[in-house]
Amino acid sequence: MATTYDVDCVLSEAKRKCLARRDWLTVLLAFCLSDNPKNGPQDLPLALLGDGRLHTFGRLSSGDIYLAGERERTIFSTHPEWFVDSLLAGECGLTPSPATRLQKMKPKTVLKKLLLDLSVEEDQPWKSWNPDSLKPPNSEWLTDVYDYLAETKEPSIQDDESDFGILAIVPDQFRHLWQPGCLGTPLLPPAKGEKALDAALRTIGVPLVSGSDSLLFSIRRFVSIYPELDKSGSAICDLTEASGVVDTMVELASEWQDCAGRWDEAAIQTILDFLSRDESVRELDRDRITIKKLKGIADLPYARGQVYLARR
User: Fold this and answer.
1) How far apart are CA 23 and CA 37, in angstroms?
2) How many whole angstroms separate alpha carbon 301 and alpha carbon 265?
3) Dist. CA 102–CA 68, nearest whole Å
4) Taking the model in full, what pTM does it have?
5) Residues in contact with 309: Cβ distance below 8 Å, sequence separation at least 6, in sequence order
6) Domain boundary assignment for the chain
7) What is the band of 261 on the pLDDT scale with cuts at 50, 70, 90?
8) Which tens digits make up the pLDDT trace of 144-181?
9) How many CB atoms lie under 10 A from the CB of residue 183?
């Protein structure tokens, strides 16, 4: 039965009639695995994938195929051809077999595959986003991704080499998805409190993490589970962190003259009041670089053309 080529056909159109029915295929694969467990399914034309096509184990031109749970299959529902049919895998007790490029999909693999939907252009740290789209990456899908990453509790997500840091995965109010850890990455509002600061920052155009209640809940949970993302440069900063507010405002400073009409006296006062709080001052005093950045913001214009000085 072994072949040296990929049969690559719809199951019902398999040239060998014994391969054209799922129940027969299941019996054959289970028997072959029990008869020769050492070599696994190598070269057997019994690899039924999630898209209904039959392939030869170890001969697919596309490379690896995966065993996976329901969560991974849901996230990548637009790519059923990546996965061995779930019923076939379960009934035959398939296990990973590197020789045949049959792998278990792990969180590290999920992060790499997410780049297909969450990559950015080389010259900018964000991509346009339609949260209401009928296909990924929409709001419901992004919620599933954050839930999956939170529930796996994969330590490597916080590593310097993690692919998480290059994913455009942080949504803002302007229908953008940002990479984490950038100066313009949206700030995460707390679940409770700071409504005035939230409104003020939105008024002047500072990107804030935005989305449905379920998406915001999932992002906050993810951030709480991975508190050391900042060490790998992949932080999603909290809106209540003064240094994050300053960094984001500095990033937007070059746009202020063109956007002067969007500034509002009350909003500016609210932000300055926040930066003048004792806890904000203590935080900024520990970070001389951020203090220097803050002093570099000389003017904070607002609609009437007047100016606040951001120098202490």
Assistant:
1) 21
2) 8
3) 11
4) 0.88
5) 298, 299, 300
6) 9-105, 106-238, 241-312
7) very low
8) 999 999 999 998 898 888 899 999 999 999 999 999 99
9) 13
User: What tokens were used for 308?
Assistant: 């606040």
Question: Which residue reads 């020769």 in tokens?
Answer: 36
What's the residue count for the chain?
312
